[in-house]
Amino acid sequence: MFELFKLLGNKRLFVLLVGLVTFIALMGFTLSPRTTLSWPEKFLKDSVGFVQYVFYKPASYVAGFFKDVANMRTVYQENEELRIAMGHYTRDRLKYNDMEQVNEQLQKALNFTEEQKNRYNYGSRIAQVISANSDPNSRTINIDIGENAGIKPGMAVTSQEGLVGVISHVSSYTSTVNLLTSMDANDPTSNAIAATAVGKEKVFGMIESYDPKTGMLKMTKISEDSNIQEDDEIISSGIINNFPKYMRIGKVKSVEKSEYGLTKTATIEPYASFLDWKELIVIIPPEVKE
Predict the structure, then answer these.
(1) Nearest to 273 by CA among 162, 127, 144, 139
(2) pLDDT tens per residue across span 248-263
(3) Any idea where the domains of the chain sit in the sequence?
């Protein structure tokens, strides 16, 4: 008995024993199968939750800050690219304006007719696609403008990416477009497109056919001594049936000699996707009266 009083007289040991008993009691409450928490457990849980909240909020703000910094870096890089592009645009615009003035002076000196001056001043009409086959190899689509908008057979149709096809039939309010995917060198009704390469005067050929298996166009009748090569940009040359010049067609993927070695044939990857169109552009020749 004396030893018990002596033990209780030791304050530190007494506090330790009380704490140990309290801990064992709390563990008993925690491990027992209950659906509700005791008030010590609730207090402990809320305390831990508060501490987590206090530390989580600053951490989330810090993480968000670094994310915003990364986004700002991306935006800065994009702005730098846009500044460079604007610089090139300004330079090219000044160069173009100067060339246009020189061209006008030369046309005046050479007594160009009005028809010659306006030969490449094409207009355009936006058209909605009203029916199209989901098959990428489909041959035709229909658009919602026709004779009422001055549309005529033979006019070029393009998307934002590149040349799509040619107007084949026209009614009062709709038109049918023969896609480039319908081109077939063995079909007498298929019209070839005269083409050239950007920046290369010696390159000339005919876009005559489309291969549905590869999704590529064939450019034939290219002169043997032409300097056409892979990655050249192919555009229309504008010398056949008033077909517009400078229409983007595609990019050269490969070049090979023809069967007898007198000409070259180029495989062209078209810029247009020929799938899932909503709007297209019909190119109006300058001689068409609206």
Answers:
(1) 162
(2) 999 999 999 877 778 8
(3) 122-285
The listed CATH number (2.60.40.1640, 3.40.50.300, 3.90.190.10, 2.40.10.350) that belongs to domain 122-285: 2.40.10.350
- Given a cut of 70, whether residue 63 has pLDDT beyond it is no
Query: What's the per-residue H, E or C state across the chain?
Result: CHHHHHHHHCHHHHHHHHHHHHHHHHHHHHHCCCCCCCHHHHHHHHHHHHHHHHHHHHHHHHHHHHHHHHHHHHHHHHHHHHHHHHHHHHHHHHHHHHHHHHHHHHHHHCCCCHHHHCCCCCEEEEEEEEEECCCCCCCEEEECCCHHHCCCCCCEEECCCCEEEEEEEECCCCEEEEEHHHCCCCCCCCCCEEEEECCEEEEEEEEEEEECCCCEEEEEEEECCCCCCCCCEEEECCCCCCCCCCCEEEEEEEEEECCCCCEEEEEEEECCCCCCCCEEEEEECCCCCC
Question: Phi/psi of residue 195, each to 5°?
Answer: -140, 160
Strand 175-179 relative to strand 193-197: parallel, antiparallel, unpaired?
A: unpaired
Task: Quote the pTM value.
Answer: 0.61
